């Protein structure tokens, strides 16, 4: 079984991508307080978040211009081709 995870976040400017990132950071902070001692990271500072405000290139990045209609069949084929 393929253990990779594909996360896709897209949207036009003002659609809530930053709001989503803020919520992820909030939930991380909430759960980190009860984390096992083997997980020393307990908070994500603004500096840490800013450092990773771009794709970390740990995998393939597919940029999609959402200012025009997206060819979903073409995009899906590109994603499937990553396997």
Please give a structural write-up.
The termini are close together. The radius of gyration is 16 Å and the shape is elongated. It has one domain (17-80). The protein has 83 residues and is mostly helical. It is 37% helix and 0% strand. It has three helices and no strands. The mean pLDDT is 77.
Name a few traits of the molecule:
mainly alpha, single chain, 83 residues
Short description:
Helices cover about 35% and strands about 0% of the residues. With about 80 residues, the protein is an all-alpha fold. The longest helix is centred in the first third of the chain and has 16 residues, at about 15-30.
What topology does this entry show?
Blueprint: H1 17-32, H2 46-51, H3 72-80
Question: Quick one: how many beta strands?
Answer: 0
Question: Quick one: biggest sheet?
Answer: none
Helix content: 25-40%
End-to-end separation in angstroms reads 11 Å
How many distinct helices?
A: 3
